[in-house]
Amino acid sequence: MATRKRAARPKYKRVLLKLSGEACQGKDKGLSLGPDQLRSVARQVKDAKALGVELAIVVGGGNIFRGLAGESRGVERATGDQMGMLATVINCLAIQAFLDEAGVDTRVMTAVRMPALAEPFIRRRAIRHLEKGRVVILGAGTGNPYFTTDTAAALRASEIGADVLLKGTKVDGVYSSDPKKNSRAKRYKDLTYQEAIRKNLGIMDTAAFSLCMENDIPIIVFDFFRKGEVMRVLKGQSVGTLVHK
Q1: Residue in 108, 6, 93, 97 with CA at minimum distance from that of residue 56
Q2: Which of 75, 91, 183, 199 is at a distance of 20 to 30 A from 125, taking alpha carbons?
Q3: pLDDT at 69
Q4: In this structure, are residues 8 and 231 in contact, taking their beta carbons and an 8 Å threshold?
Q5: How far, CA to CA in Å, does 39 sit from each of 20, 25, 58, 84, 98?
């Protein structure tokens, strides 16, 4: 009698996926939200859910507005950061719309209360949503200016008890210098938190690293735009760069 293949099990049960605003952006950079790219995000998230992963997503807003960039346009930093928080919520709602289209159950939760659009972030409620199999999309950063969405991702990963923080980028890991400018740049297979901070590699800010280090949450930096890469990471294959103790 033919034996059935056992379905692959994920290495990580509860995952925080950090995406930049670029993950929502159209290939034409003048298009803040690209339907094809958003459908790609939805497909990868749906595949992750099919693997049995509990998934929360923190998304940036740089495709729409960056707080730091606002200063050069005459917008005071704190106000610019608040505008950036609103941009992340737009991206959250866009991702939710395409996940709904793909048949994935979702909840959007925000650090800044906006009950007409989303639920407020309440830790125990977010965990309950994850346990029920919903994808939780987290917007508005930490709810405070001067904190990046990387720090928000590290904070939320700590709060929900994530097994790993996945940082999806356009690069296949962490390099010693910009690989687009330096063909001899070295890609690291793994780094300690302290090495990443000391080398100032620009992966995440120090506050984000510190939170992950204190709560022993490994970080995997990988190319989100490479087909099938999310699944390879979740199955425990050697992908990208691992930052750990």
Answers
A1: 108
A2: 91
A3: 75
A4: no
A5: 16, 11, 17, 23, 6
Task: Enter the tokens of residue 67.
Answer: 């707080």
Structural domain includes residue 6: no
4 contacts: CB under 8 Å, gap ≥ 6: none
- Show the tokens assigned to 193: 């938190």
β-pair partners for 36: none
pTM value is: 0.92
Q: Which tokens in the block code for residue 148?
A: 């990046």
What is the token pair recorded at 212? 């992950």
Please name every residue paired with 108 in a beta bridge, in sequence order, or none if there are none.
137
Averaged pLDDT in 10-residue chunks for the chain of 245 residues: 61 96 83 92 95 97 85 87 96 98 98 97 98 98 96 98 96 88 89 91 89 96 93 93 93
CATH of the domain at 94: 3.40.1160.10
187, β-bridge pairs: 175
In the block, tokens 């690291």 appear at 188
Domain count, the chain: 1
Q: Which of 194, 191, 87 is closest to 149 using CA atoms? A: 87
**Is residue 101 domain-resident?**
yes
